Amino acid sequence: MRNFTLVAFLFFSISNFAQIKGIITDEKGNPLPYVSVFEETTYTGTTSNEQGKYQLNVKEPGKNKIIFQYLGFKTQKITVTPESKTITLDVRLQEESFSLNEVIIDPKNNPANAIIKSAIANKKENSDKTGKFTADFYSKGMFKVKDLPKKILGQKVDLGADMASNLDSTGTGILYLSETISKVSFEKPDKLKEKIIASKVSGNNRGYSYNTAALSTYDFYDNAVDFDIKLISPIADNAFSYYKYKLESTFYDDNNQQVYKIKVIPKRDKEPVFEGYIYIVDDSFAIYAIDLEIKGYRMKNEFTEVMNLKQSFSYNSQNKIWSKNAQTLSFTAGFFGVKFSGNFNYVYSNYEFPAAFEKKTFGNEIVAFDTNANKKDDAFWNEIRPIPLTIEESSDYAKKDSLQLIRKSQKYTDSVDAKNNKFKVWDILMGYDYKNTFKKYSFDYKGLLNIASLSFNTVQGFNLDSGFSFKKWNEEEGKSTTIGTTFNYGFSDERFRVTGEFSHRFNTINYATIWGAGGTKTAQFNNAEPISKFVNSISSLFFKDNYMKLYNLEFVEVNYGQDIANGINLTGKIGYEQRKPLFNTTDYSFFKRDDFYSSNNPWAPDDFSTPAFSQHHLFKALFTTRINFGNKYISRPDGRYNFKNDKYPTVYLAFEKAFAGSEKKYEYERIGASVQYDLSLGNKGVLGTNFRAGKFFNAENISFIDYRHFNGNQTHIGTSSRYLNVFNLMPYYTNSTNDSYFELHSEYNDAGFFMNKIPLLNLLKSTMNIGFHSLALPDRNPYTEFTVGLDNLGFGKFKLFRVDYVHSYQSGVQQNGVVFGLKILNVLD
After folding, report:
1. b/e for 648-681, b at 16 or more Cβ within 10 A?
2. CB–CB of 469/444 below 8 Å?
């Protein structure tokens, strides 16, 4: 009923509009893009498109005063009396006559500094004026690509038929185009409620646009503006530590208010700063407009070349508020010779500024889509769309929408699949994929010679993985099912092992999922698998270091998990395990052939005959809960999409019980907890912490397999992007326990705050990490580590490396070492 009322009201409102449209040009007839167009003393507005075309719907046709505002040009105010539903009004803007006569230039005092200081002093007052509002919001987003090759580094580029259908033979065209109409309620600093009334995605009548107000709020009255990294606002409290300013000119707007055009100049190139222009209104010192650039390397995003953000504000003489009416965000990016570009337009209109909101206005749901949001027809969009489509955009909609039925037909999808599914002889070695798009299922064969198939360990020698998997899915219902099997053969122990797995997700509302697995495999004593197959193979074959300790596991297990409340996920597992000890079967390596590997017994690395444990079996049950406090989410008809609230920690709770063992001594209980939290320090970086603790009960004689093992590292190779779950120099099994434990990991990343200021080192465009790690156990002295290093290292756009110096201490034994972080290994494993 609420949705019907909303749509009915919207329709009634549209029917009473008068539409004013036309083209805006300069004096030479060149079209002017992104001109702000709004009705005086109202918050009804729009902008022109890239071709200078605009359309404005006025609510109360009569004598309407329409204002055309564009940076660098004189503001025009034109009175229009609509005599029909639609009138055409073409406008030619004149260049602004800039002046500095009104400003007394003192060689010893930069006048721009005084203006910026006044803007900083008045920013809270100006910010508070728009601290609570409701508004209509429109967004349009477009991604384009140029020169996209068919393959990159030998791998086929597969965008899917929907995205690729509008690319020409050179790989150039629009990848993505979408629009959104919504109603927004907002209260500073971060309370948001957005109701999306209409959503349109080119070539996908079931799609939902990702363009939301929640993802486009850039407030320069804040000290920092979030672009994944905190960029310093030109009017931040500490702005003079980062910027120099130059007053380039002044002019008067249509209300005879003086506006200062101030150039924003970074003091240091590698800092998280903007550059460009900020326009400040005299007397109130409110923001009149923003025209700023962000270099990709300043955001620690090397693939982005440059972003440009433009904002324009309109003045309402009745309430004396400057409010943002339009925003444009554009960018260029690229790698391997491929160029990407994007352009996002946002229009805010029909503002209301309530003194207060009702208590239940805001909650954890930040965005909600109307049930029929993606089913609005062209007539609706043509009537309500505030920014006209360009010729290119209209063509993209027309082409992709007309091809949509064809692309989704079985005849078309079968023909595309037939081409992609063509089997080649070498697929027997390299792997093979088969897909039926229309019936929504796929089949995958892993092959024998891909980089993840072959590995080496001292138990199996060289061993080979391969397998098959089958997947079926239903996007509309959020369902997916996967069945797979993995085959492994060890050439030294001459043993064939097989595992199978199954999973089914029931929906994308509470993400109820059941999955299971079973079979025989080699398993690490630490089931967190701290040593990757790739790193262990290199350590063994090149340096004759045998760190991976394995046992034979025959098992079957069933798991079920789902979100049981907002931010709370509960998972349960029950399984049967039979464990058998294993021994080294090979001493092979590329080098050091006269040396010997350590044994496969983590208790006794020099004992090659005594097993680490006796063969046994038991049942295990594990219940885990993840709690994301203050969890935010977007509700769509096809699912719910969660966003962790960075203000609060994530808490994990676990209870584990082993029972029905082959001997009573193997049975035990364990409780565990973990608290993970990232403390944002603004532009000074982030402090990440991970506290973990647990306690065993009735576990005096349990198997070493079931001890609590901690993620050590003896290879000096790091494989994760952050070290919040690892001890960088600790041996893998020396501190394993069947009692209580407490571990602390903390890591501070300066996000370039310090590194950007150090000459020469700032050329690396890196970040600094400082870490502290500690492990406390009841029967031994604590283990501690201190680390300091550099992250975001690499070549050109590829920042895949980090390096850390580590100092550790336990029971009088000190170690020093260097850990080389190779984040690309996450992909290889």
Report:
1. ebbbbebebbbeebeeeebbbebebebebbbeee
2. yes
Q: Name the pLDDT band for 154 (thresholds 50, 70, 90).
A: low
Strand, coil or helix: 241: helix
Residue 103 has a pLDDT of 52
Q: What does the alpha-carbon distance between residue 158 and residue 154 come to, in Å, rounded to a whole number?
A: 12
Position 713, amino acid? N
What is the arithmetic mean of pLDDT over 709-735? 94
Supply 506's token pair. 């029931």
Q: Which helix (H) or strand (E) holds 542?
A: helix 533-543
DSSP H helices, 356-444, are 378-384, 391-407, 410-420, 427-430
Flag the least confident range among 14-23, 549-558, 619-628: 14-23
Residues 6 or more apart in contact with residue 713 via CB below 8 angstroms = 530, 726, 727, 728, 729, 730, 732, 819
Alpha-carbon span 458 to 587, nearest angstrom? 7
pTM attached to this predicted model: 0.87
Closest CA to 535 of 594, 456, 595: 456
Task: Look at residue 128 and give its three-state secondary structure.
Answer: helix
Of 468, 474, 405, 483, nearest in space to 434 by CA: 468
Burial 476-508 (b: 16+ CB within 10 A, else e): eebebebebebbbbbebbebebebebbbebbbb
752 backbone φψ class: left, alpha, beta (φ>0; ψ -120 to 50): left
Residue 640 and residue 633 in contact, taking contact as beta carbons nearer than 8 Å: yes
- Token readout for 242 is 């980062």
Q: How much is the CA Rg of the chain, to the nearest whole Å?
A: 31
DSSP letter for 438, please: T
